[in-house]
Amino acid sequence: MSVFSRPIFCNGSPYKALSFAYKRLDVVRHSSGGPHFVKHDVENYSHNLKSGLKKAPKIADFWKKVFFIVMVPSMIASAYYSYQHYLEEIEHLKHRKQEDYIPYPYLAKRAHPFPWGDGNKSFFHNPYTNWVPGVGYEKLMSEEEKGKK
After folding, report:
1. Can you tell me whether residue 118 is helix, strand or coil?
2. Are 63 and 56 in contact (CB under 8 A)?
3. Which of 141, 131, 125 is nearest to 104 (CA)?
4. Which of 47, 85, 89, 108 could bridge to 133 as Cys pair (CB 3.0-4.6 Å)?
5. Distance CA 96, CA 149 (A)
6. Residues in contact with 101: Cβ distance below 8 Å, sequence separation at least 6, in sequence order
C-alpha cells in the first residue's frame, strides 16, 4: 500500500493534516518590524507610483488610436448601413397593404379596461396598424400616408 492511497489524518481530522502540510510549505513571510521596514516600504511605494505614471501616456495614446482607427470608422459604417436599411424599409412599407379586420372572438379579450384613454386601446396604439376590438382600424392608410410612415 502506497502513501498516497490512504487518507492522511492528524489527530483524527484530515483538515488538521492539510493545515499542517500548508504550514510546512516554503512560503515567504515578511516581518512587519525591524529598522529597515519603513525605509524599504516608502521606496517601494514611490517606485510603484512612478512606474505607473510613466506608462500612463503610452496607454492613453494606445486607446486614443484604437478609438480613432477602429471605433470611428465602425460607427460611420454602422450609421451608413442603418440608413440604407431605413430606406429599404420605407420602400417596403409603400407596397404594403393594410390587412383586413376580421373580428375573431378569441382575440383581444379585455378582462379589465386599460387605465388610460377609453380603456380599449393599448399604451402603444397605432391607429394605422392596430385595430380596436369591435371597431376595426381607426384610420385607413392612403397612398400618401404609406410613404410617410
Report:
1. coil
2. no
3. 131
4. 108
5. 11
6. 131, 136, 137
Query: Which of 133, 117, 119, 127 lies closest to 149 in space, CA to CA?
Result: 127
pLDDT of residue 35: 54
Q: Average pLDDT in the 124-144 region?
A: 76
Domains of the chain: 37-148 (4.10.95.10)
pLDDT value at 22 more than 60:
no
Look up residue 11 and give its three cell numbers: 489527530
Q: How confident is the model at residue 5 (pLDDT cuts 50, 70, 90)?
A: low
Asked whether residue 18 carries a pLDDT value surpassing 60, the answer given is: no
CA 73, CA 69: separation in Å to the nearest integer? 7
Residue with cell 373580428: 103
